[in-house]
Amino acid sequence: MRSYTASSTDLNVYCDTGDIATGGGVGSTANVNVRASRPHLDTSNVPYGWFGRFQTADASNTVYVICHQVSAEE
User: Which of 58, 64, 71, 74 has the most other CB atoms within 10 Å of its CB?
Assistant: First the structure.
């Protein structure tokens, strides 16, 4: 799992190149409304990260992503 924390309204966190996101979410240190929590999709609709949008940047906001390592075919 990866995470990114900042006092910002829009946050992004990404998997390593080639890995896929299997889930994610958001959290905050204050009572902040969440405006969006969704995966980032590539042009093939494969999830590769997570996006969170918060109502305010007055708190320490965090976005999380759970990544699955995709093994190369031999």
Answer: 64
